[in-house]
Amino acid sequence: MEDTRRSDNVDATEVLQRTPKKKEKTKRVADDGEYDDEIFSIHVCDKEEDGEESGSAESVFSGLEDSGSDSEEEEEEEGGDGSDKDEDDEVEQGDSRDDGGCQKKEEYDLDSSDEEDIRNTVGNIPMEWYKDFPHVGYNLDGKKIYKPIRSKDELEQFLDKMENPDYWRTVHDKRTGSDIVLSDEQVELVKRLQRGQFGDVNFDEFQPSVDFFTKDVMLHPVTNRPADKRSFIPSLVEKDKVSKLVHAIKMGWIKPRRARDDGGGRYYDLWSNEDSSLAAQHRMHLPAPKIPLPGHHESYNPPPEYLFTEEERALWEQQDPADRKLPFVPVKFSSLRRVPAFPRFIHERFERCLDLYLCPRQRKMRVDVDPEDLIPKLPKPKDLRPFPTTQSLVYRGHGGLVRSISVSPSGQWLASGSDDGSVRFWEVSSSRCVQVVPVGGAVKCVRWNPNPCVCLLAVALDSLVLIVSPPLAERQVLLSSERLLAAHREAEPAENAGPAGWSDAEGEERRLGLRLKIRHPKAVKQLAWHAKGDYLASVMPDHSSHQQVFVHQLSTRRSQNPFRRNKGLVQCVSFHPVRPYFFVATQRNVRIYNLAKQEMTKKLQANSKWISSMAVHPGGDHVICGSYDCRLGWFDLDLSTKPYKMLRHHKKAVRAVAYHRLYPLFASASDDGSVIVCHGTVYNDLLQNPLIVPVKVLKGHMVTHELGVLDVTFHPTQPWVFSSGADSTVRLFT
Amino acid sequence: MGGLQKKKYESGSATNYITRNRARKKLQLSLPDFRRLCILKGIYPHEPKHKKKVNKGSTAPRTFYLLKDIRFLLHEPIVGKFREYKIFVRKLKKAYAKTEHTAVERLKENKPTYKLDHIVKERYPTFIDALRDIEDALCMCFLFSTFARTGKCHVQTIQLCRRLTVEWMNFAITSRALRKVFISIKGIYYQVEVMGQLITWLVPYQFSHDHPTDVDYRVMATFTEFYTTLLGFINFRLYNSLNLVYPPKLDSKAEQALKDNNEEDYALDAESYLEKLSAFSASLTRVVSAAEEEAQMDHFPVDEEDMEKLEEREKEQKQQEAQKKMFEGLKFFLNREVPRESLAFVIRCFGGEVSWDRSVCIGSTYDETDETITHHIVDRPSVGTQYINRYYIQPQWVYDCVNAKIVLPVEDYFMGVTLPPHLSPFVEEKEGDYVPPEKLKIMALQRGEKPAQQNDEEEESEEEEEGDDEDDDEAEEEEDKVQEKKLKKMEAQRSQPKVRVTPGVMKVDNPAQREQQEKAEEKRLAIMMMKKKDKYLYDKIMFGKKRKVRETNKLAAKRKAHDDNEKAMKKKARK
């Protein structure tokens, strides 16, 4: 007991000693002064240090003394730097006090209140703030303290460095902006400090330490003060506190501490009495989908084929993180110890958490269809024979793309018009070119007169329509065609021939077979014969004109313009095979005019951007339209004005379409170089829709300059199809 | 004469859904509290079928909850607890501000807590439901148990997670439930079969995490709060089903043995107990120390068709039984550089004995010097002293054995040897999928074919090939000559005029092929006549199929290129 008490007392005294010093320190910090002074003060004091060591009495004295002489001493002694003071606190303080005793007078001599004070009173602030100003702070009167005029530039500094022997001991003082040359003592001090030694030369750091308080327990306590009275009587303050607590407990403000239940007792058999009635409440509950299980890619040592190649890796890095197929790059490690931590592990867990509580859930039915079931059941093409299946003949000879072909009504001859400026006549069965008629311009369209009693061919080139009578028929037929052409002479020329100019061919041309020339105001693109073979319609597509379609009558050599108004860019026209109807296809519509009543009866909407060609079923109730946007529309005139069926089986623009006259076949030619033959049965029963089955894709034409097959036509009696293409050939498929 | 006109959006789907903000207002909760409630109660947004109708004509992106769900939340007692907590926080702040330390302490002691038992029961009415949904819980708990105790979440949570995961793994060991293991670059996947449910979870590698800044740990902590409750109840039930004591206790014998081993304990008993448990080296105490009762399958009189199935099932079961006892009788020793916990867990799950250096972890049962050790698992190129009567193998062997369901030959896995690829056991190849050759090899092993002969054959064939190669060299020279001749011929031909007669090739009429072609054409034509909608679907399906084939081909090609490359390298090295 005694020991402890004693040590307590000792502590107490120590504390007593320290307190005044602390006071001192705090004050010192507030003041400021020059560093130099401080150093000197240390030096001065050190000498007397050795003597003192003993006794609390002195410290008590010093404390007393301090309180008396605070103000004067400190002002001189201590610098503003509070920071470096702490370390040598002990040494300094004791000494300075002694100085205070013995050197008082000298200090007063040095210090005079009216002395010009050049010290910077700006305080302990970074001096960069004054960097751009001519002054470094203010003196006590509030006047600026100017920096010494420094005109030392680099050169001067260098010279100074070379010449001045004291340059190495010159220090720039930031606070005043002046240079200070250090004395020998100061240099010595700096050196010592740099070496990590004590500043004082005389200080022996290895002197044996003498404990002030012995560690041995002494017989007598330091103080022998009796215990206080208050240690015997109950405390009123405590009583008050206790009563307050009791009250709070009574009122229920303080609750007893709850027992922490963290052990195994927390869990019990939760599902001891399961009932499925609760399950019914959650009928709308959709369990979250599970995370898919990892594949070989994710292995730390995957088979080599699962690793990325250079390109795959580059691609992976380029891709947006959302588009990547794998969220990581497969890596191979030679052994398990080399596998590092996965950097995105926490991210992935967190994303899963977000998915669980933020993602809207929706029940989605997966389409589980056998793709075979989607393919429609159609009659087999085998059962729909005959139809052309193979390419049997190629008609070569043209020098340019063959724009148009036509078969004579007898089915023996084929006429073709090409961009090389000639019309050629071929024998169908032998692919022999029978006659070449040079017409002097790219032939846009050739059409054989459908009347079997005459043998005439209409050829369209530029703004001309030529009527050619090739010597390819019996004499009887040739005569009758000549008669038809000459008929107008008997029937006295009409008042005016209308908008087109008719003229007879003469001389050389006549020898070649040319008979008539019909001159149009604009370039003719398409021609169509009436079934009887007397009327011929020609098309001159033009946006701005109402003269787009002319109908010529051969027997009277008369032309007329049936439409007074422009209804759009006319693409092609066609006569109804049996009834007095006229079909006009503009870009998007097909208009049907009744020629007898002279009115429009129907307008078909093609549902395509640009109609390229049109063909009328020999029955007259169905129309097919090919369009440049790869479609083929079948219209049932009895059904609707919309297409009954749209076929999108061509890859590129459809150029031409054709019906067979006898067989239920139709064909379409396209720029992708193919001709597709379809079977299209039309029933007499109005309730049954036509049956359309594609039966054959015929390929043979080469695609040149993005153009494939340009025209297609059927043989009048056989199930054969002719096609002409941009590769300057005509082909026959049988 | 009709009645009042019906107003829009006052019936039908518009009234079945509620937006998040409206729901929040209805519940009078702040957004974080609402989120927490949704997480705990398992409420998630629903995607309505007609979003515009539900959104009252607007197309603004909003999240919708089912109105019924929100109504269901109204009566949740936890909501009251949230409010209580809010008040507690307010009081605490006030006390802090007034520096009333006693009050602060008192308040802290009486911090309002809540239990999630009823929510677990509500969300998972039956035990099987809970088991089905436990994967996320396991993953999360395993992740949290690896966190350092550095303020990302409460230390108690981390400890609790660790305890629960250790309990779970101990259960898996005792019930021998482990089926598949997969070492991936993310961590180690384990798959167990509990009560017929396949449960897979992922354990990260034992490294300290560098915590990402863009992750909201509060959300994760809320999930973990629920998951720990769920996992605790599940563990309890599972331990009960095996007649084990819960919380788990080590077998008294085993405990004694452990005590003897490390005489000077480095920590208090209570503290080291969990670690002893997590060492997985001792069995657990049972309530009834029953002998291993094997549930024999009873035979029922069945139809013949079912008979086959039954036999198949029986066979499967037998195989599984064999798998469960795969490592029985084997004695493993783990070197210090291998992942101890994972390997100890796997080996113990299949009946092996395992130990490690005493300084690695508590709970080692025998030393490296034990002569009866059969397999020493090493993950370094060489070790100092080798014992003759044991295999020094790499850890992948253990995992591959588990996945192959047989004890694989150890030759490929010796210390310092280049390992064969580690395949994912979760991939089940269907017809037409790419099967890596390693898998084929393992499948052959499973069927009982001997791989050694194959190897020999391979080598032989390789040698033969080499012989061929030599021949090839000669042949190449010959070929060169032949080619020169050919070139000369060609030149001669060029100098001659182009017109020539070549012998025609007779077309062989192959009826089968022709028929096939016809069929293909028929199909092509029929596809042309498809409706637009069907065509779209058909194209999509076909595209998917084609892509799959393409991928398979790509993998096969890559593999082939790699193998060729390898062979070339080998040959070069030999030369």
Instruction: Give the N-terminus to C-terminus distance of chain A in angstroms.
Output: 131 Å
Extract low-pLDDT stretches of chain B: 290-294, 453-475
Helix and strand string of chain B, N-terminal first?
A: HEHHHEHHHHHHHEEEHHHHEHEEEHHHHH
Residues in helix, % of chain A: 10-25%
* Global outline of chain B: extended
Question: What is the total tally of β strands of chain B?
Answer: 9
Write down the overall mean pLDDT of chain A: 77
Sheet of most strands of chain A: 5 strands, antiparallel
The end-to-end span of chain B amounts to 104 Å
Rg of chain A, alpha carbons? 59 Å
Largest interface, per-chain counts? Answer: A-B, 87 and 108 residues
Q: How large is the share of residues in beta strands of chain A?
A: 15-25%
CATH superfamily of the domain at 397-488 and 498-653 in chain A, by name, is YVTN repeat-like/Quinoprotein amine dehydrogenase
Category by helix and strand content of chain B? alpha/beta
The class by helix and strand makeup of chain A works out as alpha+beta
CATH architecture of the domain at 397-488 and 498-653 in chain A: 7 Propeller
Computed Rg of chain B: 34 Å
Residues in helix, % of chain B: 40-55%
Write down the overall mean pLDDT of chain B.
Answer: 83
The helix tally of chain B amounts to 21
Largest sheet of chain B: 4 strands, parallel
